[in-house]
Specification:
globular; alpha/beta; five-stranded parallel sheet; Four Helix Bundle (Hemerythrin (Met), subunit A)
Amino acid sequence: MYAWPASEVPALPGSGRDLRIHDTRTGGPITLDPGPVARIYVCGITPYDATHLGHAATYTAFDLVQRVWLDTKRQVHYVQNVTDVDDPLLERAERDGEDWTALAQRETALFREDMTALRILPPQHFIGAVEAIPGIVPLIERLREAGAAYELDGDIYFSVESDPAFGEVSGLDSATMRRLSAERGGDPERPGKKNPVDPILWRAARDGEPSWDGAGLGRGRPGWHIECVAIALDHLGMGFDVQGGGSDLAFPHHEMGASHAQVLTGEHPFATSYVHSGMVALNGEKMSKSKGNLVFVSTLRREGVDPVAIRLALLSHHYRSDWEWTDAVLDEAVERLARWRAAVSRPDGPSADALVEEIREALADDLDAPSALAAVDRWAELQRSGGGTDEGAPGLVSRAVDALLGVAL
């Protein structure tokens, strides 16, 4: 599966700062110190609907991670999956009387368009669950051979008790895990499971559902968590720098993925840090496909909204915060974009050297994009009041905002 085209990232004078970021597993900030190549895995979409602003906020946050690392002169190895076979996708296709593969392909194509418009740097590997199946099956077989998986009426489950570190990613108690498992695709009430939250590794073929040859597993399709583990281990290996996604992925998805990988390899941890973005709400409730309270990036674009303004609206909230999308949020972003573009259109202005360092410091401090935006606001206000004669300043501001914030002026 191919990703989307990359926008050029301008080179800036000097070098950026190492990223200090909040790690869900430890519950506090850690300073990441990747080698020459920083490794990041961000969980992708299930393509049964268009990209909504909750998705866009998440991918914008992890785009900032890439940009901080690139500014430290590192290379970035970024991997993202697409869950192009799963229950919600199949249910939507059946509801609409559409072939599930056509639905997945169409919505994945629209996702690429949205990511391109928002200037999200693409992954080096953009992998669909279906194309990963040949690599998933051997992992499930290994888990079964190790006694970490068991069969229940033809389905194969992972035993969470096989991983001594299970629970450390989310830090949740068993009752909360059971509740969230039921809400987020698990089946804790199924009789016969060793532990109610044990996740499925291989779903045996059902009538009317797609299935693949699983060799000794029989025909079926993979579970959600093992999909990402197979892709991450194949392309990044253990101990990669950041496992990212929305806060609703901490449990069960990232918890289960960590346990799968740690049992498979005997190594710990699966990822050095677990980084989660907050939820975006509309009308007082988290944007959710199941609730239908969504604002789509593609819809805003069709209405003529500048994608750069959408990106600025997302950046105006700290990535870990939960916040609500309103017309006022977008209006403020449109006004900010106009001010910034007016400021860099002048032939000279206040020195921008200190501004570049302010942006770097803000982003290195747990991706504090709102503080970075406020710094640019202050420079633009000085520019408006005629506060400088540095001929190189407007160009440097334009390059810095592009390189570090992904905002094209």
